[in-house]
Amino acid sequence: MGKPKRERTLADTEAQAVTRNLRVSPQKLNLVAAMIRGKKVNTALADLAFSRKRIAGDVKKTLESAIANAENNHDLDVDALVVKEAFVSKGLVMKRFSPRARGRVGQIQKPFANLTIVVREVEETA
After folding, report:
1. What are φ and ψ of residue 74, in 5° steps?
2. Helix, strand or coil for residue 28?
3. What are the pLDDT digits (tens) for 67-78?
4. Between 26-36 and 41-49, two packed helices, what is the crossing angle to 10 degrees?
5. Is 15 exposed, middle or buried (CB count within 10 Å of its CB: 0-12, 13-18, 19+)?
6. Domains of the chain, with CATH numbers?
7. C-alpha distances in angstroms, 1 versus 4, 5, 7, 102?
8. In terms of Cα–Cα distance, which of 90, 88, 93, 89 is closest to 111?
9. How does it assemble (predicted)?
10. Whole-angstrom Cα distance, residue 112 to residue 94?
């Protein structure tokens, strides 16, 4: 016995990877995610490898994981993959406090973000 198997939410030609609790603000992460949206996988990996943003390495790892999921779990052709979606959601926010003048306190917010990358196999047009 056990729970019944959950239906797959993605199409048969798609695979995804999710990274949770990245220590960066969602706004900054979305700048890097927008850089790879809609591009072929090889181009997106090259763009992330040469990006100067600190979080680009983690986005690259997530994209590589989505590619591996597509290849190993869903038998998709790696050369025909395109980044269909790359979206960012807000995670938790750590709140810290810093002493300020005259006995007051200043709040420091340390946000976290979640990243989801969906890759899709497309047919080559001649």
Report:
1. -125, 5
2. helix
3. 999 999 999 999
4. 130
5. buried
6. 14-121 (3.90.470.10)
7. 9, 11, 18, 64
8. 93
9. Part of the 50S ribosomal subunit.
10. 8
Q: How far apart are CA 34 and CA 56, in angstroms?
A: 12
Residue 69's nearest CA partner among 9, 120, 5, 34 is: 120
Sheet hosting strand 14-22, strand order edge to edge: 14-22, 105-121, 81-99
pTM, full prediction? 0.91
- Residue 69's nearest CA partner among 19, 9, 119, 122 is 119
The C-alpha atoms of residue 112 and residue 10 are separated, in whole angstroms, by 26
- Whether 109 and 85 have beta carbons less than 8 Å apart is answered as no
